[in-house]
């Protein structure tokens, strides 16, 4: 099955490393916004539902303010997502030339959901004042639903790169395609739920963190409790599910992408009774430092210490991922932070069971405040594991990343431009969200506390309001 | 046969993108030319209100076009992405700056920052259409060859490319002004109706002149396409010209009915004319055609299916969005006291 063309050797002249760095930085940036685009609408809708159902002003204020923050995140996400579409061709024309007809299928389906998301985001975000309560609520449902299905479609494309299938080739060209097999490839079953849940954890813990910090700063009121509880409960409830999905994914990778798994777990050579390493640095076939637990890796992979685990030595050095230590440490960070996220959940359950209230201990709030950044770091680490771990392949065992890369010179220039631009964009986005928060704290949006009320008398000259 | 259907879909998606997103980009152009803080304020507000709820949805047509392009015609896609890399990077840069500048401008307070972000939004609204036009010109002039490994400046700085770049900017300005006439009319502002009528006339005349100049330039940059445009595609070009002239006549008469459909049909006719004139060639100057450059059958069928599904799901959504927006039910987020675009000066009545 491995089919390496002579062009692999020629391709080394291409600027693969800067192209990969650029893809990594733009994807790593966009994925944060994508998480909020996927999961934040659900959180906003839960708040609005509570607000409408119980005529709860506080929940309503939260929903309205969150939707304003969502507006900023969605706008930045829409444009940074477009950059990725461009980069598919600009950085990886080799990939698209050969596999465009295959990988394009899930992306075309995603297009429909992206449309629905954008259309109803426009209605939901700007319909607050003039649409009636439940009509407005329902206008948000397509946003949440299409966010989910859009994410699944994109993950179908990514998982296909890990487990390509559903097509036949002749003389280097794809001659027939089976769309369902492309969409529901072997890796889709675990990659799709893994990333979808990750989006909910990042957005849920992320929003909750903001209110946990407010709590720690002494803003102990119902507004902060509710603003914390809605996203936190949602994310915390999904954490154990994500834990199980991730565990399943790791085992599937061990059997289907054994070299990636070998890098993740520092399996230097194929063996039974493979040890598990926590931490440690891999260099030249040896693991330095770290905690070595004998037999555990075999046990985790096959529920028996005698399970044979494929090692890095199963393939030639050129077919191994370039930086095993990065993959392994990222995997440890992801799994470690994921496990730690279970602590605040257990704490919350205990407090609820005993007192029917949120925990009051400061330690809980410190943990909760850290859960947002932790979820984000874990999600990014997971992407490093899957993307760097697939190297040197862009399409597993069929096309190398070097073959896919552009033949153009000067990728280093666009990489530099992107780093500067995205740094500014990232800072600006955070500044915008902080500006919003400051304005909310000053109560500057309180003249519209009555939701769905008539337009205020000082409305702008076109009947709308100040932009 | 099915590759013809997919090519028609791609052209249709591009036409829709040109009309709706073109109007959003053109809004940035008129924002840029609206004048000083005080004088330009009501115009900028009108533009802002018009674009805000719809630009993201209109933008998705571009993503859709890119995906169809790479899925259905992968070899042509890879070649264009290689040869025209620089203008495509610049178009993408414009998209990022436009979207984020526009979104951020709403959230900041203070004249300096508003000016900076407003200028970012407005200037980048020029950048994207120009460079996209340059890429189209690069393709139309036959500058994309299958063998080239590198992008060159010459590929997209030919007179054809520069003319199409300018044409795209003019068309965006034209479409935006037409849309804004209706927006001003529905808000009862005669002053702004006149304001944008004048601008629509200028931009429309400019777009017409640039179209003719591009056509003339194609006479020697790509004679085969010129031949197709003045032959098979001639009825479409005449339709486009007739719509343009009708719009100009209506503008002179001061009427604002039929402006939007006529201008839209005019632009769509020209985009379709390009497709018909070039048929069956995918990339002029290469041997790549619909028959030897298309994806496998199943992919093409899937694209048609997705397009039909999109039609069933997305079109009603768009109609709802535009209808609510047209009835001014989609207003910006709640007003914040003390927050006035253009600084603290009270707005002059229109």
Describe what is shown at a glance.
Chain A is mainly α and 467 residues long.
Tell me about this structure.
The complex is a heterodimer of chains A (467) and B (350). In chain A, 69% of the residues lie in helices and 6% in strands. With 467 residues, chain A is mainly alpha-helical. The longest helix of chain A has 38 residues, at 16-53. Chain B has helices at 2-32, 37-51, 55-72, 74-83, 85-107, 111-140, 153-156, 159-186, 190-221, 223-230, 234-253, 259-278, 297-326. In chain B, helix 1 (2-32) crosses helix 12. Mean pLDDT of chain B is 89; it is low at 333-350. Classes of the chains: A mainly alpha (467), B mainly alpha (350). At the A-B interface, helix 3, helix 4, strand 2 and helix 15 of A face helix 2, helix 3, helix 4, helix 5 and helix 13 of B.
Tell me what portion of residues of chain B adopts beta-strand conformation.
Answer: under 5%
Mean pLDDT across every amino acid position of chain A: 89
End-to-end distance of chain B = 55 Å
Largest sheet of chain A: 2 strands, antiparallel
Structural class of chain B: mainly alpha
Mean pLDDT rating of chain B: 89
| Form type of chain A | globular
Q: Termini of chain A, distance in Å?
A: 58 Å
């Amino acid at each position: 099955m491995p089919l390496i063309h002579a062009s692999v050797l020629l391709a080394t002249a291409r600027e693969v490393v800067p192209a990969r760095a650029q893809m990594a930085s733009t994807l790593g940036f966009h994925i944060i916004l994508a998480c909020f685009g996927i999961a934040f609408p659900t959180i906003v809708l839960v708040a609005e539902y509570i607000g409408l159902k119980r005529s709860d002003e506080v929940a309503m204020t939260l929903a309205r303010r969150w939707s304003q923050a969502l507006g900023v995140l969605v706008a930045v996400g829409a444009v940074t997502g477009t950059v990725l579409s461009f980069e598919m061709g600009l950085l990886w024309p080799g990939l698209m030339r050969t596999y465009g007809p295959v990988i394009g299928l899930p992306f075309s389906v995603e297009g429909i959901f992206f449309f629905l998301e954008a259309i109803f985001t426009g209605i939901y975000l700007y319909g607050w004042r003039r649409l009636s309560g439940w009509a407005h609520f329902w206008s948000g449902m397509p946003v949440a639903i299409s966010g989910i299905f859009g994410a699944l479609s994109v993950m179908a494309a990514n998982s296909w790169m890990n487990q390509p299938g559903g097509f036949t080739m002749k003389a280097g060209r794809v001659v027939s395609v089976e769309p369902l097999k492309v969409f529901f490839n072997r890796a889709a079953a675990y990659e799709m739920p893994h990333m979808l849940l990750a989006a909910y954890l990042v957005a849920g813990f992320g929003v909750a963190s903001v209110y946990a910090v407010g709590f720690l700063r002494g803003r102990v009121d119902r507004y902060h409790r509710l603003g914390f509880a809605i996203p936190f409960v949602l994310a915390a409830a999904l954490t154990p599910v994500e834990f199980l999905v991730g565990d399943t994914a790791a085992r599937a990778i061990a059997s289907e992408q054994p070299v990636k798994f070998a890098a993740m777990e520092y399996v230097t050579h194929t063996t039974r009774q493979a040890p598990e390493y926590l931490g440690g640095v891999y260099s030249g076939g040896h693991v330095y430092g770290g905690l070595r637990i004998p037999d555990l890796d075999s046990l985790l992979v096959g529920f028996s210490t005698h399970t044979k685990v494929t090692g890095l030595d199963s393939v030639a050095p050129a077919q191994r991922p370039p930086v095993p230590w990065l993959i392994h440490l990222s995997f440890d960070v992801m799994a470690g932070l994921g496990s730690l996220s279970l602590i605040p959940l257990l704490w919350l359950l205990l407090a609820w069971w005993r007192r029917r209230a949120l925990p009051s201990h400061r330690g809980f709030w410190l943990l909760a405040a850290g859960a947002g950044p932790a979820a984000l770091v874990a999600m990014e680490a997971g992407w490093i594991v899957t993307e760097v771990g697939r190297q040197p392949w862009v399409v597993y065992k069929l096309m190398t990343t070097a073959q896919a890369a552009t033949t153009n010179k000067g990728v280093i220039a666009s990489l530099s431009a992107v780093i500067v631009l995205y740094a500014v964009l990232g800072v600006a986005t955070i500044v915008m969200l902080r500006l919003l928060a400051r304005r909310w704290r000053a109560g500057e949006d309180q003249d519209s506390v009555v939701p769905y009320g008539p337009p205020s008398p000082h409305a702008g000259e076109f009947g709308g309001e100040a932009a | 046969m099915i590759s013809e259907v997919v090519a028609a879909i791609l052209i249709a998606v591009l036409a829709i993108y040109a009309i709706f997103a073109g109007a959003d980009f053109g809004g940035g152009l008129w924002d840029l030319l609206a004048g000083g803080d005080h004088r330009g304020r009501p115009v900028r507000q009108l533009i802002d209100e018009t674009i805000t709820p719809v630009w993201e949805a209109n933008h998705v047509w571009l993503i859709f076009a890119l995906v169809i392009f790479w899925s259905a015609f992968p070899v042509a896609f890879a070649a264009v992405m290689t040869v025209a890399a620089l203008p495509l990077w610049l178009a993408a840069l414009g998209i990022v700056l436009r979207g984020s500048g526009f979104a951020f401008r709403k959230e900041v307070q203070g004249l300096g920052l508003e000016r900076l972000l407003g200028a970012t939004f407005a200037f980048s609204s020029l950048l994207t259409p120009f460079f996209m036009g340059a890429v189209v010109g690069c393709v139309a002039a036959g500058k994309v060859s299958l063998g080239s490994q590198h992008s060159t400046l010459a590929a997209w700085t030919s007179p054809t490319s520069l003319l199409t770049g300018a044409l795209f900017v003019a068309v965006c300005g034209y479409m935006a002004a037409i849309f804004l006439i209706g927006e001003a009319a529905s808000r009862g502002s005669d002053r702004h109706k006149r304001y944008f009528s004048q601008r629509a006339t200028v931009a429309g005349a400019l777009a017409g002149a640039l179209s003719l100049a591009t056509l003339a330039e194609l006479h020697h940059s790509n004679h085969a396409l010129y031949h197709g445009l003045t032959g098979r595609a001639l009825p479409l070009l005449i339709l486009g010209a007739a719509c343009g002239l009708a719009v100009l006549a209506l503008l002179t008469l001061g009427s604002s009915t039929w402006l939007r459909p006529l201008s839209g049909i005019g632009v769509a006719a020209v985009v379709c004319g390009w497709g018909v004139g070039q048929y069956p060639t995918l990339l002029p100057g290469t041997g790549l055609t619909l028959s030897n450059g298309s994806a496998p059958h199943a992919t093409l069928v899937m694209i048609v299916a997705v397009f039909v599904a999109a039609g069933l799901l997305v079109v009603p959504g768009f109609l709802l969005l535009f209808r609510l927006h047209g009835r001014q039910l989609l207003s910006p987020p709640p007003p914040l006291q003390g927050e006035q675009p253009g600084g603290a000066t009270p707005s002059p009545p229109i």
